[in-house]
Amino acid sequence: MNIGFIGYGDASFALSSGFRKEDQSIDLIAYDPMAFHSNFKELIQTRSKSENVQIVNSMEEVCKQTDLLFVAVPATKALEVAKEIKPFISEKHIYVDVTAASPEVKRKAHFEVRKSEALFVDCAMVGPLLVEKHKVPMLISGPGVEVLAEKLKNYHMNLKIISGNPGDSTAIKLVRSIYMKGFATLNIEMLQAARTFGVEDTVIEGIGHTMDGDSYESSMNRMVTGTSIHAERRSAELDGSITMLEEANIHSVMATAVKEKLDFISSFGLRDSFSGEAPEQWEDVIDSMSQSKTKR
């Protein structure tokens, strides 16, 4: 098996490094226009040499020499690449799109790729890629998932088949990102405030006491169901937090966004819908909001 990469940035470098450690004899071929005419030329050339990856001059050349393609280009280029590569791929190819493009773009890319009878796989990597390399958890969906899993079964990869529908894997990753990115950013704003007022140790200890005793699912369920009936009060409490941040000249965009979301949740009248008592499950909250939105 020969593996090709369209785009040789961080993702392709990490994957190629992992594949090379697994198999010293495997042929790895890559095309990246920036390998010849950009500020990244030296970096790409150095990385490719370190993993014995052959850099070629075109996508066509990669396709000629390989049967498994990892497409790792900027999200804005995902559909463009799918269209441009069509003349060079065939039923022998598995086209694995690991870009950060949206589910809709993944579906459109699949529409283009299937015209050449190549198998399309939507792949979402959901872990520290640069650390875990090819063993990073990968969610895969699309018509080529079974063939891909079989082809890579000896490479100790962490593949999870989601469905046969392109876009499903990416949807999971992007929904997950709302929390992961939001949580990190919210922590930064909180820690800025805590550090400014010299209370970081006590604040971190207090949050840990609240959060550490339960699993994520249990904590999430408790906070969502509680917020459903206390959104208005909690929004009012945040007014004080936002004022404090502004007085300390700390950027308060996250706290302000949380207050706006709480006001939005309050507008559904869930406190009345649940007769002032928090429901048992988070599904009750989300379903009630969805039903109320439909009626609006």
From TrEMBL:
Residues 194-263 form the Phosphogluconate dehydrogenase NAD-binding putative C-terminal domain. Pfam families: DUF1932 (PF09130), F420_oxidored (PF03807). Residues 3-100 form the Pyrroline-5-carboxylate reductase catalytic N-terminal domain. It comes from the Bacteria. InterPro entries: 6-PGluconate_DH-like_C_sf, 6PGD_dom2, NAD(P)-bd_dom_sf, P5C_Rdtase_cat_N, Pgluconate_DH_NAD-bd_C. This is NAD(P)-dependent oxidoreductase. The lineage of its organism: Bacteria, Bacillati, Bacillota, Bacilli, Bacillales.
